[in-house]
Amino acid sequence: MFLLFQEAITEATATDVAVPTEETFSIIQLIFDGGISSVIIIGILFVMLGVALFIYFERTFAIKAASKIDGNFMNQIKDHISNGKLDAALILCGSIDSPVARLIEKGVSRIGKPLEDINKAIENAGTLEVYKMEKNVSVLATIAGAGPMIGFLGTVIGMIIAFQEMANNSGQAEMGQLAGGIYTAMTTTVAGLIVGIVAYIGYNHLVVRTDKVVHQMEANAVEFLDLLNEPV
């Protein structure tokens, strides 16, 4: 009898205790809860993020390849020029796919002309090489600035939607009715800031790496010009 009474108490307790249900948080559901305006704006930001990442990685690999140069390259150039083997120096420069090699090739091809002309030719070649390395980097800077602005645009649109719901309900709108506008305001702001931060960091990293290659080009150009100034 006692056992039956104890089992009844156990079953009643198990029935009365409510098992809490765990609510799952879905980013996709959060985006779609904001309505069509949220979907459009976040879609634009998603495309901008993809473009920013593509430009960053493409330029990173390109700049990394441009910075590679044999440490013995300038010594070989010096030997060829000292021995009057300009053709060999040109062949050596042409065999290396590097901004430094192309600058030196331009200088070697101008040997025999006034030093100012050689210097000017190297500077012009250097300007072209820097332009190649900075290809599409300005797009990354634009995305860094435009991303948060587009996100804030979504914030404004979301607040307009929320206030419109309040106006349509004489200021007595429930939170459920305002949820769409609030979702739009919050999700687009976060998405815009993420895009802006990623693009900004990527842009500055590319600028730093480009500057290192430019300094490498300048150092080798000065070394080449000093070689031409050495007494025969």
TrEMBL record:
It holds the Pfam family MotA_ExbB. One of its GO terms (cellular component) is plasma membrane. The keyword Manganese does not apply. Residues 97-218 form the MotA/TolQ/ExbB proton channel domain. It is found in: Cell membrane; Membrane. It comes from the Bacteria. InterPro entries: ExbB/TolQ_transport (IPR050790), MotA_ExbB_proton_chnl (IPR002898). The chain crosses the membrane at residues 35-57, 139-162, 182-203. Keywords: Cell membrane, Membrane, Protein transport, Transmembrane, Transmembrane helix, Transport. This is Biopolymer transporter ExbB. It comes from Neptunitalea chrysea.
